[in-house]
Amino acid sequence: MRRVCVAVVVLCLGISLVAAANSAPAPAVGQVVAQSAMLDGLLVPSGTTIMSGSVVKTQAEPAAIHVKGHTVMQLAPNSVAAFALTPQGSVKVSVQSGQLAYASSSGKPALVAANDSLVLAAQQSGQPLPVTLSRDFPAGSRELVLNHVGGLKPGQKIRIGDELVEIRSVDPDDNVIVLASPTKSAHPAGSMLVPFLFKKMPVAGWLGLIGAGALETGLVVDDLLAASPSK
């Protein structure tokens, strides 16, 4: 009887270890910044972490997607994309519907269309750092102190939390930017600023990029370029 009990205990312990291994949390692959985006079927606040295996769905507004180790991409309105970490450490973005915009390795704007994918190479040293607030930013202010201002330009649109604002001037010596208009909300130090790759455009505009030959699909991108506003 004792041997039977020991065998049962060992079997249960083995099952528990397997269950624990299978229940390990999925690794984070990035962050979604949007006014109204859904993650795995739930409406989530701006700044929510994207885990491997998650699906992001936009509604009437686009969503900025910051993948770890890379710069910002933009998921078009009414689009769906799945994010997964590969065994090699790359991040695969599969567009299920709509379009995903990004800056290609050649510096040109590019789109990934529905049923295509984009593979971002494993994170390497020297990748651009996210832009974050170095100090608390009170509501109604226009001057932001940042950790760095690389890639930011006057006239560029950026998102802070749920607010979309425009940069009036950039001071690279002090890592300070001045906004064209005051913010409505306060933002704590460490908050991420997301530069938009492209100006907001209707679906016809996104399709126009495809017609202009800007579509690049199935690419392996070693290093997305710093985000810059479209002209």
Q: For the largest beta sheet, what order do the strands appear in spatially?
A: 3-2-5-8-9-12-19
Derived from helix and strand composition plus strand pairing, the structural class reads: mainly beta
Name the average pLDDT: 73
Helix content: 10-25%
Characterize the largest beta sheet: strand count, sense, and whether it forms a barrel.
7 strands, mixed
Strand elements, count: 19
**Total domain count:** 2
- Total count of helical runs of at least 4 residues: 2
The low-confidence parts are 4-11, 17-21, 198-231
Our Rg estimate from Cα atoms comes to: 21 Å
Portion of residues in beta strands equals 35-45%
Shape: globular
Order of helices and strands: HEEEEEEEEEEEEEEEEEEHE
Structure summary:
The protein has 231 residues and is mostly beta strands.
Keywords:
6-stranded antiparallel sheet; disordered C terminus; 7-stranded mixed sheet; 231 residues; mainly beta; single chain; 2 domains; 13% helix
Describe what you observe in this structure.
Helices cover 13% and strands 37% of the residues. The chain is mainly β. It starts with a helix and ends in a 10-residue tail after the last strand. 30% of the residues are buried.
Topology:
Layout: H1 2-22, E1 28-33, E2 37-39, E3 42-44, E4 48-51, E5 55-58, E6 63-67, E7 72-75, E8 80-85, E9 91-97, E10 99-103, E11 109-113, E12 116-120, E13 131-132, E14 143-145, E15 157-160, E16 163-171, E17 176-179, E18 192-195, H2 203-211, E19 220-221
Parallel strand pairs: 12-19
Antiparallel strand pairs: 1-4, 1-6, 2-3, 2-5, 5-8, 6-7, 7-10, 8-9, 9-12, 10-11, 13-18, 14-17, 15-16, 15-18, 16-17
